[in-house]
Amino acid sequence: MNAHHLDRIDLHIIKLLQSDGRITNLQLSNEIGLSPAPTLERVRKLENQGYIKSYHAVVDEEALGFNVKCFIQITINLNVPDARNKFIQKINAIEEVVECHHVTGSSDFVVKLIAKDMKGYERIILEKLSKIEEIGHQSSMMILSSNVKPALPIVIEK
Amino acid sequence: MNAHHLDRIDLHIIKLLQSDGRITNLQLSNEIGLSPAPTLERVRKLENQGYIKSYHAVVDEEALGFNVKCFIQITINLNVPDARNKFIQKINAIEEVVECHHVTGSSDFVVKLIAKDMKGYERIILEKLSKIEEIGHQSSMMILSSNVKPALPIVIEK
DNA sequence: CGTGAAACTTTCAAGAT
DNA sequence: ATCTTGAAAGTTTCACG
């Protein structure tokens, strides 16, 4: 699965579906300059070969009441055997954990967590995070505001 | 714009569109137990009122050749007037910067950056990041692996 | 909110380049 | 090997009840 099998049209399809996940196949075919049938066939190929993984609506977190977001930097307690894998399993099972990144540097993991308010945040820390014995040290950064781009910088050559 | 105008059906629609952004209105109407017409009307309302912001395909970053990802913690040089706003503008203009979070703690910002390889990464640091005079100090964490959940933990009460 | 009908989109098979 | 066409099946969208 590498990018060598993708031609300009495939990259164009990926770019358009990334910026509008609900574009119709007909609109898509018009934009890329093919008829609907081969357009659909290419989209299915991109999905089946794993280039396109899924489609999602992006919701307004604040509008839905998620007003507290933070990153937590975590170091693993190396006294516990197989600590990394156990930690990964436990941390991802927490529904308020929306991202978990294994990283290099002075921390082992960066975890993103969301909650409706500070009381909810406190509850997650006390009842869920602090019960994970594989955690050695943690340090949190509250997110004040964010800019998240919905698409990768795909460049279509030639 | 707050969550008090959303009933159980609205939350159910949001949940389903978050987990499958390309579900048809007909399937959606079947799942929530309404006919297609009022279902579509509710979806349009959720879009127009800003609860649903957009729809996107999620692509496999590695399959598209983006093999280098990192978080960079940045502190702002407070000697420059209006440094925060200038920094935000400049950092978001870099196409390889896919996220920028203003945070509390010892850093001012956490920036997520993607590149195809280490050479590309070096080029971004040398040619783009290091030219932002508002940056005081920076420290990077390479991402080894990630788990990102595509949906918020929406709980439908009652 | 539901029904029904018109307009539009998806999808497939057949044939062209 | 990949494209276009055209037709059937399915979906969206609107007016009306």
What can you tell me about this protein's structure?
2 copies of one chain form a homodimer. Chain A has 5 helices and 5 strands. By secondary structure, chain A is α+β, with helices and mostly antiparallel strands. Chain A has 2 domains: 8-49, Orthogonal Bundle (Arc Repressor Mutant, subunit A), CATH 1.10.10; 62-142, 2-Layer Sandwich (Alpha-Beta Plaits). In chain A, a hairpin with a 5-residue loop joins β3 and β4. In chain A, α2 (25-32) packs across α3. The mean pLDDT of chain A is 96. Chains A and B meet through α1, β1, β3 and β5 of A and α1, β1, β3 and β5 of B. Chain A binds a DNA duplex (17 and 17 nucleotides) through α3. Chains A, B: Keywords: DNA-binding, Transcription, Transcription regulation. Chains A, B: Residues 6-67 form the HTH asnC-type domain. Chains A, B: One of its GO terms (cellular component) is cytosol. Chains A, B: It holds the Pfam family AsnC_trans_reg.
